[in-house]
Amino acid sequence: MAYSIISKCIGCGLCKNNCVVYAIEGEQQKVHTINEKRCIECSVCVNVCPVHAIVDGANNLLEPIKREDWGRIVIDKDRCSACSICTDSCSFGALQITNPTYRGDIDVYAEIVDIDKCVSCGLCVKRCPLKVISLVFSKTSEVKK
Prior knowledge:
By secondary structure, the chain is of the alpha+beta class. The chain has helices at 14-18, 44-48, 85-89, 123-127; strands at 4-5, 24-25, 33-34, 54-55, 72-75, 95-97, 110-112, 133-136. It is elongated and about 55 Å long.
């Protein structure tokens, strides 16, 4: 079940601007809505909402995870085929494929280029056909996936 936004939403747009699958709509200073067909329950909106206005499918208020406890992307570069599905999936440009070091170099792979741009949505993890990307959380955070 998709997430929903409740009436205490202030219409700041942070959820809309950070939604990796563009599932959130709304005008400034008006309650926003989440398209349930597009929502992947990645919790990015939960983590950026300043007024805690996101609920799950059972109408439970979702609590944000502190930035320092967000997941961290780990890529097995030895098994990565550099297909670029992950980089194409990353709305914020946190990933890229390494450049070859010489003509014909096939030892390229996906890598994190800007960890601060990563919102820990897990979309790259879900879309990786070789399953070489994982999202690792700190021991202190509680993950609801």
